[in-house]
Design goal:
Catalytic activity: S-sulfanyl-L-cysteinyl-[protein] + uridine(34) in tRNA + AH2 + ATP = 2-thiouridine(34) in tRNA + L-cysteinyl-[protein] + A + AMP + diphosphate + H(+)
Strand content: 25-35%
Family: Belongs to the MnmA/TRMU family.
Order of helices and strands: HEHEHHEEEHEHHEEEEEEEEEEEEE
Number of domains: 3
Oligomer: single chain
Structural class: alpha+beta
CATH topology of the largest domain: Rossmann fold
Keywords: ATP-binding, Cytoplasm, Disulfide bond, Methyltransferase, Nucleotide-binding, RNA-binding, Transferase, tRNA processing, tRNA-binding
Helix content: 10-25%
Subcellular location: Cytoplasm
Distance between the termini: 52 Å
Number of strands: 19
Radius of gyration: 22 Å
Shape: globular
GO cellular component, one term: cytoplasm
């Protein structure tokens, strides 16, 4: 129970369905001031209080479990390491993968519970053979299946999402109000919870360090300078310290971050178009695709709120192991290594991978 409206209603519905329910709030920091507060965070002290009030109204036991060490190692430290390597991580994906459906689920099963129930908007479908599949929620505007794409077949077997068939968030808020939950009108949480003031650049600068470097164009010419490559991400336009204007006078965007040489590569907007993405760190959500080494039709989604794009995918062997390769029908825009690509077949989440490499649709010199 995060302290928000969704998990409160999910817990109440689980009780209504006849389950024996225990409310658990996750303490993710031993220094609460390091987490965002109000509507901009999650898992803070005030959120814990809101969760306890909801649990009291529902009439279920309520506990706070300390996962601060695991959260630091698996989410915060990973976030720093990924940025240091020039990648753009998604900490919410890592939190779902490593904390909510790994550390939490492991402890719950050890204590004799059958499943972890959350307020995510997604659905689970069981086929004729009893295999569980992860699918989009009925309300695509609120669908959260993307951030659950990291779940494995074993984790899906112990997961429940009572809100998945609810047509809108407004109905969930109305239900919360009817049940007397004080969180009925509480705003949704957003942004990175462990960066209190929202200054990601400054936060990373304190932990990664600041080192002057060059901003170069695609041909390798120096066109500016920076004070730390970690402060830049693919697709960024603002905040570039460019001393040499583009020959055509058009704005330039970050195309690549090279931590080994401490360089930031910039170029025209057209060069952000990506014709292929690939990654070796992949998982299947439920049963894997049959004959994945053969090309198959799918849709790929590269951000939580991005539109899915029709694509062709395959598993390709390399010298360092297999990698998931996806070729979209329409070029993807501004894709950065470190992002998560979630693969769909219809409404079903087939699997996901962390993007290791991209191929531009616009060759250098064009």
């Amino acid at each position: 129970m995060s302290g928000g409206v969704d998990s409160a209603v999910a817990a109440a519905r689980a009780v209504d369905a006849g389950h024996e329910v225990v409310g658990v709030h996750l303490a993710l920091s031993r220094m609460p001031g390091t987490l965002r507060t109000g509507s901009r965070g999650c898992c803070t002290i005030e959120d814990s209080t809101d969760a306890q009030r909801a649990a009291n109204i529902i009439g279920i036991p309520y506990y706070v479990w300390d996962f601060s060490e695991r959260f630091k190692l698996d989410v915060v430290d990973d976030f720093i390491a990924e940025y240091s390597a020039g990648r753009t991580p998604n900490p919410c994906m890592r939190c779902n993968e490593k904390i909510k459906f790994a550390a939490l689920l492991e402890k719950a099963i050890d204590l004799g519970f059958d499943a972890v129930c959350t307020g995510h908007y997604a659905t689970i479908v069981t086929d004729d053979q009893g295999n569980r599949e992860l699918h989009r929620a009925s309300a695509w505007a609120k669908d959260q299946s993307y951030v659950l794409g990291v779940l494995t077949a074993e984790q899906l077997a112990h997961s429940m999402f009572p809100l998945g068939e609810t047509p809108s968030k407004a109905l969930v808020r109305a239900e919360a109000a009817e049940r007397g939950f004080s969180v009925a009108s509480k705003p949704d949480s957003h942004d990175i919870c462990f960066i209190p003031d929202g200054d990601t650049k400054g936060w990373l600068g304190e932990r990664v360090g600041i080192a002057d470097g060059a901003i170069i164009d695609r041909e390798g010419n120096t066109v500016g300078a920076h004070e730390g490559a970690h402060a830049y991400t693919v697709g960024q336009r603002r905040g570039l310290n460019l001393g040499v204007p583009a020959p055509d006078g058009r704005p330039r965007f970050v195309l690549e971050v090279r931590p080994k040489t401490n360089e930031v590569v910039v170029g025209p907007k057209e060069a952000l178009a990506i014709a292929e993405i690939a990654g070796s760190r992949y998982t299947w959500a439920g049963l894997p695709q049959q004959h994945p080494e053969e090309s198959f039709d799918c849709e790929v989604q590269i951000r939580a709120h991005a539109d899915p794009v029709p694509a062709v995918a395959r598993i390709q062997p390399t010298e360092n192991g297999d990698e998931f390769v996806v070729t979209p029908e329409i070029a993807l825009n501004g894709v950065a290594p470190g992002q998560t690509a979630v693969i769909y077949v219809g409404t079903r989440v087939l699997g996901q991978f962390t993007i290791d490499r991209t191929v531009s649709a616009v060759p250098v010199g064009v």
